[in-house]
Structure formats: structure tokens, C-alpha cells
Amino acid sequence: MTAAVVVPVFNAAQETRRCLDALALKLDKDSAGVIVIDDASTDPAVATVLAELPSEWVAVRNEQNLGFVATANLGMALAGRADVILLNSDTEVSTGWLEAMLDCAASDARIASVTPLTNHGEIASVPEFCRPNRWPNDPDRWARAARESGPATYPDIPTAVGFCMYLRRAAIDEIGGFDELAFGRGYGEENDWCCRASAAGWRHVLCDHAFVAHEGGASFGPLGLKPGGEAMDTLLARHPDYMARVRAFIKADPFAARRRQIAACYQQLAS
């Protein structure tokens, strides 16, 4: 399996450089290419960062700001027939991240989305569940702990988390991309997509052999795209049981034992 990595960018030049440098260093042969889309950044430093991209990557600049949802959909289209990994520009990938995510996706043809572990990703967070853990000093150590602490379990989750999200092309073909009209400039689009996919019989899973650091609040974050408001109203109007399913997952916390296992291995690797 291969996947194209799509990185939407809006300002946050420092975080974007960190993201793209790590991606260039830790992208393996399983990649179907990298597509970086500048959504009409107003920070001139972003152009300097993107001018240094590897020559084989695809770089696109929107003439006007389209917002995250439309930019992500553009990336899906530019990826052709490949599966897609949407990667926020305030992330830092770790060693083996892509191979692990693709192995996870390959475990079941009905997996629509894969989310890696992270420090700041709600239900995907380690070591503290549903909390914004601090930025890790060594993302690779978390990745190693995830791999060496035990066999992957790939637990089902009610929704992917958008900081780093694998989407299977077959699922995109069946249910379409993100809904630009309903979710405008962002927030809720990935949850809506996952609910639509679930209704069509697809699965969403957590890849517990991959780790991607996530800062949160950078790039598209300053535009005020946050939980609540009209986007949440739209999401719940379409999927009234969404919050109940998420709350049930959090209450059951089926990943708790595995999370403790990974955290313990992380501490052992530090000693």
C-alpha cells in the first residue's frame, strides 16, 4: 500500500518548517508523494519555507484563502487514485510512522480512516487520555515505545482525529470528501466524514504502533476554528447520536491498558 501525504498550510512558518523538515527526513518508500498546499498565507516567511521543499514534492498556492476544508479536498483531488494522509502543519512525524499507519490500514479493507497516537489529540492522546499532553522532547521514543511495548491492537474509535488522518481512497469514492458547504472554513468536517463512512459500514481505528507529535492551535487554529458554535450544531443535526457515541467510548476507555503499557515502555526507554 501507498498513500499521498497532503499538508495544508496557513501561516505558522516556524511550525510548518518543523513539520516539513521532519517529513522529508522520515518519509519512507511507502509514500505516493507529498502535496503541500499554501492556503494564501499572509506571512511572507511561509514562502521562504516552501521554496526549500524537495524538488519531487508538489507545491500549490491557493490564489485566495479557501479555508481548511476546501484545501483538504483539493489535496485529495491532487492525490489522484492514491489513499491520502492529511497532516497538519503543526505536527512532527516520527520514525516509522507511515509504514505503521499503512500496515494498520492493510489489516482490514473496510478501514476508512487511521489515526496515530499523539501527545495532543483527544482520544488518540498518550500518556494522558483526552488531555493535551506537553510537546514531547523525543517523538521517536514514543514511537519506539508504541512498537516495542506489545503487538498492535488497532482499536475501533468513533471518529478519526484530524491532526493526522489516513483516508482510504475507496471510502472517499463511496461517500465523497469533506463537506465544504456545511463546514465552511473548518471544524467538524472530519467527524462528519467519519459518521458518514460509519453509516456506510466502514471502520475508524487507532494505530497504536505510530506516533505523531501535535502542537495544536497553530496553522489554521488562529482563524478561530474551534469546538462549538455553528459547526457543532450542524454536526449534531446530521448525526444526533455522535456525542453519545463519543462519550460512551471515553467512559469505556477500551485502550486504557494498552496506553499504560506504552507509557511504561516509554519510561523504561528513558532509563
TrEMBL record:
Residues 5-175 form the Glycosyltransferase 2-like domain. Pfam families: Glycos_transf_2. InterPro entries: Glyco_trans_2-like, Nucleotide-diphossugar_trans. The keyword Cell wall biogenesis/degradation does not apply. GO terms for molecular function: glycosyltransferase activity. Gene3D superfamilies: Spore Coat Polysaccharide Biosynthesis Protein SpsA, Chain A. The keyword Glycosyltransferase applies. Coiled coil: none annotated. Keywords: Glycosyltransferase, Transferase. Belongs to the glycosyltransferase 2 family. PANTHER family: GALACTOFURANOSYLTRANSFERASE GLFT2, RHAMNOSYLTRANSFERASE WBBL. This is Glycosyltransferase. It comes from Wenzhouxiangella limi.
